[in-house]
Amino acid sequence: MKYGVMRPGHVQIRVLDMADALKHYCDLMGLIETGRDDQGRVYLKAWSEVDKYSVVLREADAAGVDFIGFKVVSEEMLDLLQGRLVEYGVEVNEVAANDLQDCGRRIRFVVPTGHTFELFATKEQTGKWGISNVNPEAWPRDLKGMGVVRFDHCLLYGPDVPATAKLFQQVLGFDMAEQVIAPDEDKTLIAAFLSCGMKAHDIAFIESPESGQFHHSSYYLETWEDVLRAADLISMTDTPIDIGPTRHGLTNGRTIYFFDPSGNRTEVFANGNYHYPDHEPITWTADQLGKAIFYHDRVLNERFLTVTT
């Protein structure tokens, strides 16, 4: 948090049918609906999150992601970061307060991979779902499905990952927690896993020729047993599965990937590495990408590499 970016704040995901999407994100995964707006968007949160929402669903003709927002420590820091972005040569647009429900003003910009990001400092806080801040219980007893703990990160595909990683590091203060490099003489960066705190990553990018591609949104569970239970629920509901349960080499998370009814990939995972600012990046070489992504099989799943929205 060198420059005041605290954590992922929200992601707006495009879905083809809202009723089907809510069965996936609420009934199966356990996110909780907290509001709707006059644009038809639906706002969701995980039970442990204190902000009013972290996931926004928008019905559209094509699946994918509209934008990803990060929360910063204060309105003053938001002004400072806006100045840093402009000084760096990034075009910044301001979005008025309450364009997203109960969220303050946001500053929006596009990174070299073609994805839209925004920063904000203020959002209504409703506290953990069903948990008091005074003498709290361990967890709510009325959770649905997987009972995901929090929205954790997104993985995005697009061109010019080195320039995108540089922007996040030099302007926004993220650290490179893990990276994948090509076998060429320059050791070109082809994947960047960036952290603004102690997590294994808060945003990740993989090099791809087509800009603005959404690979997955990811949600945290507490234990490997929770991931196995999630796999059972995926099977019980005939939800399309991508791969897992398995372990990553990159980030060391225990994971399973599956698809929402619109074709957007979803991940739930547990455990994983931690990162401090004085840690050197963990480096993987492209010839070991199979082991990096799927540690047990050490074989790449072609669908995992090519299917995006």
UniProtKB/TrEMBL annotation:
Q: Which domain of life is it from?
A: Bacteria
- VOC domain segment(s): 7-122, 150-271
* InterPro entries for this protein: Catechol_2-3_dOase (IPR017624), Glyas_Bleomycin-R_OHBP_Dase (IPR029068), Glyas_Fos-R_dOase_dom (IPR004360), VOC_core (IPR037523), Xdiol_ring_cleave_dOase_1/2 (IPR000486), XylE-like_N (IPR054560)
Instruction: Give a Pfam family name.
Output: Glyoxalase
Keywords (alphabetical) are:
Aromatic hydrocarbons catabolism, Dioxygenase, Iron, Metal-binding, Oxidoreductase, Repeat
**Segments forming a coiled coil:** none
Instruction: Give the EC number(s) listed in the UniProt record.
Output: 1.13.11.2
Required cofactor(s): Fe(2+)
Q: Which family does it belong to?
A: Belongs to the extradiol ring-cleavage dioxygenase family.
How would you summarize the oligomeric state and partners of this protein?
Homotetramer.
What is the recorded name of this protein?
Metapyrocatechase
Source organism of this protein record: Oceanobacter antarcticus
